[in-house]
Amino acid sequence: MIIDCHGHYTTAPPALKAWRTQQIDGLTDPARTPTRTDLRIGDDELRRSIEPNQLRLMDERGIDLTVFSPRASFMAHHIGDLHTSSEWAALCNELCFRVSELYPERFAPAAMLPQSPGVDPATCVPELVRCVEEFGAVAVNLNPDPSGGHWTAPPLTDRSWYPIYEKLVEYDVPAMVHVSTSVNPAFHTTGAHYLNADTTVFMQLVQGDLFADFPTLRLIIPHGGGAVPYHWGRFRGLAMALGKPPLEEHVLGNVFFDTCVYHQPGIDLLFDVIPARNILFASEMIGAVRDIDPRTGRHFDDTRRYVEAAELPPDDLTGVFERNARAVYPRLDALLTKQGR
């Protein structure tokens, strides 16, 4: 199988955005605040949003299944308060679950959390529980910066995050570390903020000892790890200066990277630096980069061709495409096993 561990519902029906606009308007005019039941999207609308988009491209590129979560840039945890985020997360998570019900062999649901700046992360636990127990979510997206690019939250190694980790460990569910929209004009959302966050979180993990407290916790750092592979020597040296064990012992038992890197030299570097067992296939399709590369005539995010051109040993290639994802996402493995795959 080829499993894409990083997909977002970027093509959701327009009614979802309209509901969100009303919700935001309701922050200043409460009379305009919608209820969850005001959002009406039928199954046919979901099919029309998926079949000519994600599903078509999956078929064209030979991707068997995508781990499917709400649109990352739409999480926008900086908007409103905890109630705002809770209502929004509940709706977005339910839509991803419904897509997985319509196409059970092609999509597995992952959830966003109702994070809010300055709010105790423990408040996210009820939605996490609901999504795992009711929707069969195989992963969650965890935003290390709910402020939208101002970085007011403590590092992910801070004990305030522990209630989320405790529940993830209990359910044996991984978290993909994924920020949302940047409202800081210094940081472009997808070109800077996403990659900054990947790099920043890795350094937080190097500085801390999170996995001593949670030895079975698994985190996926997307977008190829941001600057991490390129500056691996810097991180090795900093770990030594901090008195930490080698990175292979300190973080690589719990941290994984995906292949959302949109050119061949970048993928080659990723595989040269990071062990293949720590890399999961992903494309983030349809996502931040949607155009066709004029140098190749192929979409930038058609990452399967980069991985196949990296000349990995066959066993490593199988690991990247399937086996690693099944190990990092045990609930996905159980789902596939139940389906006879």
What's the quick description here?
With 341 residues, the chain is of the alpha/beta class.
Structure, described:
- With 341 residues, the chain is α/β, with parallel strands linked by helices.
- The chain contains 14 helices and 11 strands.
- It has helices at residues 14-25, 43-61, 72-75, 82-102, 125-135, 162-171, 189-207, 210-213, 232-241, 247-250, 264-273, 303-309, 314-328, 330-338; strands spanning 3-9, 65-70, 107-109, 111-112, 140-142, 175-177, 219-221, 255-258, 279-280, 292-293, 298-299.
- The protein has a 6-stranded parallel β-sheet. Strands 1-2-3 form a 3-stranded parallel β-sheet. Strands 10-11 form a two-stranded antiparallel sheet.
- Strand 5 (140-142), helix 6 (162-171) and strand 6 (175-177) form a beta-alpha-beta unit.
- The longest helix has 21 residues, at 82-102.
- It is globular, with a radius of gyration of 19 Å.
- It starts with a strand and ends with a helix.
- The model has no long low-confidence stretch (mean pLDDT 97).
Q: Tell me the number of helical segments per DSSP (H or I, 4 or more residues long).
A: 14
Low-pLDDT ranges: none
Q: What fraction of the residues are assigned to beta strands by DSSP?
A: 5-15%
Order of helices and strands: EHHEHHEEHEHEHHEHHEHEEEHHH
Distance between the termini: 8 Å
Helical content band: 40-55%
Mean pLDDT metric: 97
Q: How many beta-strand segments?
A: 11
Rg (C-alpha, Å) = 19 Å
Widest beta sheet: strand line-up:
4-5-6-7-8-9
Overall form: globular
